[in-house]
């Protein structure tokens, strides 16, 4: 199995549409035998991932499917989503 580490600091300054094109290209063109790790500044970049790991102060505080993490009452990912201006879009992405 191939593992690719993907750091997207460079894409943090581009618009959402371009970021979505890049993410879609990576997810569709790398093949099914690839595990893609994405470190993102934008929630929209990761909300359709199979699993999300939330790290705080160097510690893993949550790990699981986005659809499950946003249901945790006092969850870290839920709090980030609820504080976002894209809250409705982000919740739709988890369905």
- Under CATH at level 1, the class stands as Alpha Beta
State the CATH superfamily name: P-loop containing nucleotide triphosphate hydrolases
- Radius of gyration, in Å, reads 13 Å
The computed structural class is: alpha+beta
Describe the sheet with the most strands: 2 strands, parallel
Q: H/E element string?
A: EHEHEEHHH
Question: Which spans of ≥5 residues are poorly predicted at pLDDT below 50?
Answer: 1-8
What gross morphology would you assign? Answer: globular
**What is the CATH T-level topology?**
Rossmann fold
From the structure provided, what is the oligomeric state, counting identical versus distinct chains? single chain
Structure description:
Helices cover 39% and strands 24% of the residues. The protein has 5 helices and 4 strands. The model is unreliable at 1-8 (pLDDT under 50). It has 95 residues and is of the alpha+beta class. The protein is globular, with a radius of gyration of 13 Å. It has one domain (2-93): P-loop containing nucleotide triphosphate hydrolases (Rossmann fold, 3-Layer(aba) Sandwich), CATH 3.40.50.300.
Label this structure with key terms.
disordered N terminus, two-stranded antiparallel ribbon, alpha+beta, two-stranded parallel ribbon
Summarize the structure.
This protein is of the alpha+beta class. It has helices at residues 16-29, 43-46, 66-69, 76-83, 87-93, and strands at 2-7, 34-39, 52-56, 59-64. Helix content is 39%, strand content 24%.
């Amino acid at each position: 199995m191939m593992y690719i580490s993907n750091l997207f600091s460079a894409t943090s300054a581009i618009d959402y549409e371009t970021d979505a094109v890049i993410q879609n290209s990576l997810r569709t063109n790398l093949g099914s035998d690839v595990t893609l790790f994405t470190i993102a500044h934008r929630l929209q970049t990761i909300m359709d991932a199979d699993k999300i790991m939330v790290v705080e102060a160097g510690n893993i505080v949550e790990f699981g499917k986005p659809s499950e993490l946003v249901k945790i009452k006092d969850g870290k990912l839920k709090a980030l989503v609820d504080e976002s201006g894209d809250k409705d879009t982000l919740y739709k992405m988890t369905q």
